[in-house]
Amino acid sequence: MHCSANIGKNGDTAIFFGLSGTGKTTLSSDPERKLIGDDEHGWSDDKVFNFEGGCYAKCVNLSKENEPQIFNAIKFGSLLENTRFYPGTSTVNYEDISVTENTRVSYPSHYIENAVSPAIGNAPKNIFFLTCDAYGIFPPISRLNIHQAMYYFISGYTAKVAGTEMGVTEPTATFSACFGKAFLPLHPAKYAQLLGEKLKSGKINVWLVNTGWIAGGAKKSKRMKLSYTRAMIHAALNGELDNVEYEKIPFFNLEFPKTCRDIPYNVLNPRKSWENTEEYDKAALNLAKKFIDNFKEFEDLASPEIISAGPVLEKINRFIKYSCKKL
Length: 327
Known about the structure:
The protein is an alpha+beta fold. It contains 10 helices and 18 strands. A 6-stranded mixed β-sheet has the order 3-1-2-12-16-13. The protein is globular and about 65 Å long. It starts with a strand and ends with a helix.
């Protein structure tokens, strides 16, 4: 699995699926939880285990205040890539992106103070799909049912963002099946089926987390505050989101909590963060069409329940007819 993983004080494991730049390393390196690993993992009948034994973190604008565990892991034995020093010193300037925004550091897992050794945890209680939505459509956190989990797992949506791949200067939508298409020898629907079987076998919560943008998308707003994302993930892990009221966004039918700690409602509901809801609906319609076009590749082995868990053209047309006539 192309994911990171950590463990809570009560032995509850969480795994974080995501592509480069979505926050796997940052969000799994949590002072309140023990790190299993920040990337490749396996999931047996009752355990999650790490393959690599090391971490590979982005360090652009890294600070001890925002990411203390990663910051403190940079010491003798760590390898920095593409970074620069303050002139005349041996102090790294993490804000210097003159070589590339994709500045990195690699270090062994035990450089994280509360890493687990051996790197093994119980089967997960929570799964987070991390997506960096450049269009500002997805809520910062959404609760998924089993069929939605399988659909978004197969889709593997995020945005290629500047600094993670050569030639990318502004965010663009991309899909990588199971959040790691290049590594898959079998049809992605086979892996989604395995995931569905595991979800049915136990009480596992699945969440879609947007670590990207809202409020008009990447061209009009700043990326989601890390403090907000951490707060929402902690709320999910602690069960705070189990009994709150949920609401749905149009086109995708994603359920988001109407309340979560002190996070404003217009952050939890991305449609309300836009100055013009009609513009949101237009952008959401365009993104929904991208999902539909992308999923055509997988429809031959995906069940009708999985297909209908994503955007459905007939439902979209009805919404437009009755609610978005100007589209």
